[in-house]
Design brief:
about 160 residues; mainly alpha
């Protein structure tokens, strides 16, 4: 088991911030479920997947027991912190003024791209299931970008530049 060092504590903070980030994104999508009932299945599926990501980050704490933890290069904490601040801006925007489905999809696309740029974990080659789960989060986030883009096109919207 890894010793409790300042680096270990910093890594734990990043993982917990990643949990907070996934929950924040999930809550935004749940609000979109309420605001756009005709598209609620789409938004709810994204929300549930974000909640699943939060659980997978919590499970990543098990990596310290298996000895894999030291082999992970974590993203800079500032990346996650800035993205969390961005989610707060979005939540504030949603509370203050209603906007169109097109705007909501634009926001979701930008949010997923920002999350993808934030969670830049460098993971070791490993068969560890927790490492596989972290890879799944990264892969799912990229899939969300694609799914939102396709949904926008289905709705007849032009993708943002």
């Amino acid at each position: 088991m890894e010793q409790i060092t300042p680096e270990y504590v910093a890594r734990q903070k990043i993982l917990l911030d990643c949990v907070d980030l996934e929950i924040a994104v999930s809550l935004i999508y749940r609000e979109f479920t309420r605001l756009y009932p005709a598209e609620s299945d789409f938004w709810m599926q994204l929300s549930l997947e974000e909640e699943d990501h939060a659980r997978l980050y919590l499970a990543a704490d098990l990596l310290q027991v298996t000895g894999e933890y030291a082999g992970i290069r974590f993203p800079p904490a500032a990346y996650i912190t800035k993205t969390l601040a961005f989610t707060e801006q979005i939540k504030d925007q949603v509370r203050k003024c209603p906007f169109s489905l097109h705007d909501a999809l634009d926001i979701a696309l930008k949010l997923e791209k920002t999350v993808a740029e934030s969670i830049v974990f460098e993971l070791p080659e490993s068969s560890d299931p927790v490492i596989a789960n972290l890879r799944k989060i990264i892969s799912d986030t990229e899939a969300h970008i694609d799914r939102i883009s396709r949904f926008m096109l289905e709705k007849g919207y032009i993708l943002p530049g």
